[in-house]
Amino acid sequence: MTQMVDILLRGGTVVTMNDKYDVYEDGAVAILDDSIVAVGPTDEIVRDYAARETVDCTDSVIMPGLVNAHTHIPMTLMRGLNDDLRLDVWLGYLMPVEREFVTPDFVKLGARVACAEMIRSGVTSFADMFYYEEAIAEQVAEIGMRALLGQTILVFPAPDAETFEDALLLCRRFIEHWNGHPLIQPAVAPHAWYTATPELLLACADLARAFDVPLHTHVSETKLEADNSVNQNHMSVVTWLEQHGILDTKLLAAHCVHINEEDMFSLRRVGAGVAHCPSSNLKLASGIAPVAQMLKLGLKVGVGTDGPASNNDLDMVEEMRLASFIAKVATQDPTVLPARQTLEIATIGGARAMHMGHLTGSLEVGKRADIAVRDMRGIHNQPHFHNHPDAVYSRIVYSSKASDVAHVICNGRWLMRDQVLLTVDEDAAREAAIDVAAKIDAFVIERESSPYNKLVLLAGVQRLESFEVQVKMPVDDDRAVHEALSGESITVTSAAHYRQYDHYFIFDSGDQDAARLRYREDEFIGEDGEVTQVRTRLTLIGEGQREEFPNAVMLSRSRFLATADRSLRFYQEYFAPARELRVHKDRYRWHILYKATDFAINLDHVLEPELPGYFLEIKARTWSRSDAERKATLITELLGQFGLTLDQAERREYTEIAQSANTEREGARA
Amino acid sequence: MTQMVDILLRGGTVVTMNDKYDVYEDGAVAILDDSIVAVGPTDEIVRDYAARETVDCTDSVIMPGLVNAHTHIPMTLMRGLNDDLRLDVWLGYLMPVEREFVTPDFVKLGARVACAEMIRSGVTSFADMFYYEEAIAEQVAEIGMRALLGQTILVFPAPDAETFEDALLLCRRFIEHWNGHPLIQPAVAPHAWYTATPELLLACADLARAFDVPLHTHVSETKLEADNSVNQNHMSVVTWLEQHGILDTKLLAAHCVHINEEDMFSLRRVGAGVAHCPSSNLKLASGIAPVAQMLKLGLKVGVGTDGPASNNDLDMVEEMRLASFIAKVATQDPTVLPARQTLEIATIGGARAMHMGHLTGSLEVGKRADIAVRDMRGIHNQPHFHNHPDAVYSRIVYSSKASDVAHVICNGRWLMRDQVLLTVDEDAAREAAIDVAAKIDAFVIERESSPYNKLVLLAGVQRLESFEVQVKMPVDDDRAVHEALSGESITVTSAAHYRQYDHYFIFDSGDQDAARLRYREDEFIGEDGEVTQVRTRLTLIGEGQREEFPNAVMLSRSRFLATADRSLRFYQEYFAPARELRVHKDRYRWHILYKATDFAINLDHVLEPELPGYFLEIKARTWSRSDAERKATLITELLGQFGLTLDQAERREYTEIAQSANTEREGARA
User: Fold this and answer.
1) Torsion, CA B621, CA B622, CA B628, CA B631, rounded to 10
2) What is the per-residue pLDDT for B69?
3) Do the beta carbons of residue B601 and residue B617 sit within 8 Å?
4) Beta-carbon neighbour count of residue A578 at 10 Å?
5) pLDDT tens digits for A478-533?
6) Residues of B in contact with A123 (CB under 8 A)
């Protein structure tokens, strides 16, 4: 008595990747609805099952679909836009493009291109992290791939959320909408600890736990990041995340390049998954993750391509081969990460790392039918040896190519048959991608002549996101300020005195990231009034966004810093600004703690344009609207300490004051 | 007036890789006979040239064929035979296979498979090193690829030469036959310094200079090799090669993983080429070659796949991408080896490293027409950006695949058209390769139960090639030997005294590499007669070849050493030998110098089987027949020093003496 099934794949080498690593040299897989109902030798399966559709898989390998454990799929549309750059310079190019172009339509198109590419290389499941995951989910579900989709949460304004509260809300709605979907597993994706505040991390962990969904984040990708954590937090990245609740979630930790054994024990204890991204870690020179050690300790390790802007492809065959290669060279041991174990981390290992091991990653009865069939007839796969049971893994990992994949089935549905994609219109996606690329080209070419690009061409730049609450007040008596600072409620943590010579180049480029370039010379003044140190630097300042609060101003803008090692005259010629402005001032600067909160205080006497009296500035970095509101309230209290009230606040920046002073002067001359 | 040409490729993005890196976005290449006659914008070229055959290359890149600067092409037939092993264990598997299977027909078949694979990935030129290069040359010339073919020269017996004199002669004939061929450049290929003697290296350098042909050798591939050179030669590998004439040739140095700046200066001074092999160096855990530094110093660097048994493919697209990736991570600098420079070393750089830069590697008027056309429509290559002149290099290096190659032309001849190979019968090659693989499978399975494999499964083994001249003489008076050693003409460099308990397992496996396994316990005896140290080891000894000389015996055989950390009883059960034999003896051992030549002297008193008197053994390692003859003469002289003459020489080994003693004993019992 035979059972009727939907699809029967027969006559291929079935590589199950089950716990016993069963391989059937002439094997078959029976699929009913979305699931696998039988796996075994062809003769046994055909005896027990009849199928509506039977596919001959002679000379092919029938294996689990590959699992891409970390990527940013819409970045297909920025593939090869800029390569071979330092990360900060690269971001300087990329982020304005993202801000300009990333929309729901953009991410859907990028998802179509990415899914087409992944299906072609035999991938059926992946873990994404980007903006507008709602739109990505719609697209991916339509195409029919399995995915863990993480809605990105940042302290900075993002394409889909101005503040992190907005991002959290968006993420919550996304989870509510998609949780329980047969293909899409929504997830919370705080981008990384260094683009988060402690509150943000705690809120993300809470959200993930509330819905019992995975949390996807970048962990210790670069040495700089790991060093910064030790310097700033006095602990490793993993420990910092642990202290902020992130390890109490179903965690998928991407990269983990710079982690130590203690970190590994922490990750293992909580059953966290690690997404190892060889190409990206090599291409960006981040380092080689200690994967051999992770696996030895029993961590759940998967393999990911990372986004195609730093890879530049989504080819998991190449990625798993690379995982094996670099593990060997890093440990100086060619026996490390052998072919079978490598295929394991690229399939069931990745599924487990994504907390989806019960659904996918191996060919086992009861699991979803996520299957790739690789045609092994290509001359690059010849010949085949059979004297060793692991020879088939060698072929798959060390010689087969993405282009060998013939058929792909996901959740029991055909996605590719005989190398023809069935659920993505590849030609239309290509044409649309080319159109977007032409628009990005035009945008970038326009920027080529921008101050930003000129700055990049001249020197490496460092990007700083600036998101501040601040207030500026004219004060007549500077001594009152000095005195107030010695009061009991204020603790001064550092103090400096310098003369600041600012030279502003004003541009009319229309580039909101590059409104002004400041050439600043700081002369530090010692106790005896002597100049102790001179520092010169260039800062490209965006126009930014200004938001009025009842008792302060919140400003957000991007800044790009570069050391200035040439003369002012050189920069004047090189940048050819529309206008120039000078502001010289004498500045006392303090960092203080008030009610356990950091503030910076400037007491400025402006020498050019010559302005009477002093200006007191009180500033604090902030990350969210609620935090900004709290700090604005504290600023009001602080003003009271200085005997000031808000009604005389100066709304203008020094450049604006200088500009109007210039205008008055010119008016007087005329 | 238009000129008539044979082939005109038009409408593609022409990437010339000339000195100015000219790229023509809508470009064309005109080919007449074997050469390029024009390169430029399509509109200019079609104005000036008419063609017998015009090929539309829309959406494609027209570029130089890739150059694979180091490989061993017949090893396609051993692709995936054994992976994830230590080099010595891997060789233990591979070398018996080579000895059994490598014939002219085998290398021709391997060449067909390899050329098919290389043409498919857009390679037109390569540098090979293997045995029977004469046969490989015939095959490659017929297929129509350009190649530097190096006939391997070893001190050990090789599949095509018993001694290095034979190998040199073979190489000379090969050069005489092929030098001047339009496609094939013969070369001298001493395998490596550590498989060579000084005489061999000098002879190879002489041969290469005599014919002005390149010399291709492995240089400093592993740290062990580099360390051994310093320990044995008191200098780096490069300096050792320099001292033995190798740098005075048109050198192509493969690998160069462990070289220092001084070595780089030496290689640069002589215009040597370096073949960088990323996959192989990673997969065998050899290390990462300092390619960034080599390029900075101006060395001629190419990229090679190495043999497909240690890669496991011949995919130069993957190889060049990897070259870029690992250079970045090794220097912790993502700007190192950017896409354009990476394509450069995979094309014109490789051609220059192979001393063929005047012929191939770039699309320039007057050069041979060695061209690959890559179809860039694949979804993994989407989209295309044009805002930066290097974007096309990014696409080729970071996202394109071997499977994108549509057409290949070499020396003006079509090798592949629309992904159809025109000069290799790929299906026939695949079938024949599968047949050979089945035979290798059977051979290896037979060996699976062999003592060798059992030894490998138990412990790592170390392979020693043994090639000795020796003589054994019964002596009555041991004091005469001790006295002779203090004579003036003999210098004793070391002396030891030990009791040697040998337990031989005799196998009837028919495996000539595994005739006997010796379990040996050495008890070292101090001055006071006390045991100072005990050493136990296993040695698997081949039957070897015995060649009678007028006054000595030359023996060559392979040995595999392993430490013995288990009991004799365990090994008896584990290896289950057909027979066992015991030889116990008291041995004095000296290393001496006689006429500036090293000899080992054993003075043995055999305790089991109990034999009367003593045996004197005189041994010397040798590498060639002429050297063996010289040492045999010196042995005769030495015998004179001990008051002995050759007529009483004992031809039998101790096992044979023991065996006949056993037989006699058993006969007496019966």
Assistant:
1) -40
2) 98
3) yes
4) 9
5) 888 888 888 888 999 889 999 999 998 888 766 666 678 888 888 899 888 888 88
6) none
Could you tell me where the beta strands, DSSP code E, fall in B388-542?
Answer: 405-410, 413-417, 420-421, 462-475, 490-506, 516-525, 531-541
- Cβ pairs bridging A and B (under 8 Å): 222
Q: What is the per-residue DSSP string for A95-158?
A: HHHHHHH--HHHHHHHHHHHHHHHHHTTEEEEEEEES-HHHHHHHHHHHT-EEEEEEEE-SS-B
pLDDT level of residue B137 (50, 70, 90 thresholds): very high
**Of A450, A448, A533, A444, the residue nearest A497 (C-alpha):** A533
Cβ neighbours of A420 in B, within 8 Å: none
CB contact under 8 Å between B380 and A313, yes or no, is yes
Residues of A in contact with B339 (CB under 8 A): 83-84
The partner residue sitting opposite A441, judged by closest CB among B314, B333, B386, is B386
By Cβ distance, the residue of B81, B117, B284 closest to A385 is: B81
Amino acid (one-letter) located at A608: E
Q: What is the pLDDT of residue B654?
A: 81
Residue range A210-262, pLDDT digits in tens: 999 999 999 999 999 999 899 888 999 999 999 999 999 999 999 999 999 99
Measure CB to CB from residue A385 to each of B329, B338, B441 and give the nearest one: B441
Helix (H, G, I), strand (E, B) or coil at A39: strand
Interface residue of A76, A82, A83 to substitute, partner B, most B CBs within 10 Å: A83
* Amino acid occupying residue B524: F
Rounded Cα distance, A396 and A405, in Å: 11
Q: Which two tokens stand for residue B629?
A: 């003859």
pLDDT tens column, B364-374: 999 999 999 99
pLDDT reported for residue B667: 60
Tens digit of each residue's pLDDT (9 = 90 or more) over B368-395:
999 999 999 999 999 999 888 889 999 9
The answer to whether A208 touches A215, Cβ cutoff 8 Å, is: yes
pLDDT of residue B328: 97
Strands B3-15 and B49-56: parallel
Measure in Å the smallest separation between the Cα of A91 and chain B Cα atoms.
13
Cα A321 to Cα A327: distance, rounded to the nearest angstrom: 10
What confidence category does residue A463 fall into, taking pLDDT thresholds of 50, 70 and 90?
A: low
Cβ A336–B383 below 8 Å, yes or no?
A: no
Are B329 and A285 in contact (CB < 8 Å)?
A: yes
Most confident among A150-159, A293-302, B305-314 (mean pLDDT): A293-302
Answer yes or no: do B84 and A335 touch at CB < 8 A.
yes
Six-digit token pair at A496? 């400096």
To test the contact with chain B by mutation, choose from A379, A399, A441 the residue with the greatest count of B C-beta atoms within 10 A, namely A379
Predicted-assembly ipTM surpassing the 0.90 threshold: no
Contacts of B384 in chain A (CB under 8 A): 80, 434, 437
Is the CB of A382 less than 8 angstroms away from the CB of B79?
Answer: yes
Q: Which of A299, A340, A409 is nearest to A31 (CA)?
A: A409
